[in-house]
Design goal:
The protein is mainly beta and 390 residues long. It has 3 helices and 28 strands.
Length: 390
Amino acid sequence: MSASSDPDHFFQTSHSLAESKRKSRKSKNKNGAPIRVPSKILAVIADPSHPTNAVFVAESAGNVRRVALDTDEKDAVYKGPTTPVTSIAISPDGQRILAGSWDKSVWSWSLSSRHPLVRYRGHTDFVKCVLTLRLGQKDILVSGAADASIIVWDIQSGGKLHVLKGHTRGVLDLAIDPIIHHLDENANHGMKEVIIFSSGSDREIRRWRINLDTAEELDPEKPILAHETSVYALRFDADGDLWTASADGTAKCLSRSREFGTDTTIPHGDYVRAVAIEEVGAYVVTAGRNEDVKVWDRGTNDLVHAFEGHYEEVTDLAMLGQRCVSVGIDGTVRVWSLKPGDLRTAKSKQDEEQHAHTADDAPVQEEGGISGVLTEEEERELAELMHDDE
């Protein structure tokens, strides 16, 4: 067997080498007008002060970064954590940005000055998701973590209000029920009580009634079981139905009128990390490990278009009007227009490119060895030999 002199080839299987070449080739594409940041991106939200042309992203390097999409405006960077930041939220008063981290805490900064503020400590494992809301006259933070707990915090003081337990594995996402809540007439018509949905890696979706004084789970013996495995994302649409994204390869619409039973199943394929709803054109957008951002017709469940651009897993989506922003492990922010005319143009252009080029950018499947690298079988044999020498 001939040997390769390239040090990058040492101890690589033919599959891993081919996959590296595929990603290198695909990384050069300009689809979605990519904006690159220095590290992997794990989450994205719209900037509420500029909801059509700026986003905040959570980086694996520990930063939260504001990214302007249509101008050369310099990024604002919020620093502090030394571990990956997983999730982001803006306080109801618009004065703070908050972020969950692998360091088991939630960080906060002044949105304008970028100075660190309160740090919320109480979880015993990675914080995976955060959301904010106003109850009465208090701004509230809710966090979910890999320790299977949900904590409700007073944003101003940093104090814990409630600790909720029901999931048996990590909490992956949180969403506020937009339909069922009670107004507090003595607090400028803020909410007195809310219902929050949580999803986890135990495949369960649970519901919680929360106010300032008490918190309880609704139907703890009857969690919503719509998926076969982890539920990564929860999003409510304008009708109050709940959309989910799961590691089982599907996104689903859980109908309120059916007590959140499955109404629609979208077969995205592979792990689905994110789902977003575009109300004007009635589209559903899904994305995940297979790198594509897929647009579906909500009425027919037909695939309208699959945007190709990311060359690593897509981790999150955010809607900015009729534009969808996607972020991923490749460290890029990409923007896709969902206007019907732009979708038709994108599909036509992609069809032409695929017809003109035979290069395959799909993830490489395991196959036989390449001279100069190790096959999977050879790699196993080498591992056994190394183990025997110990």
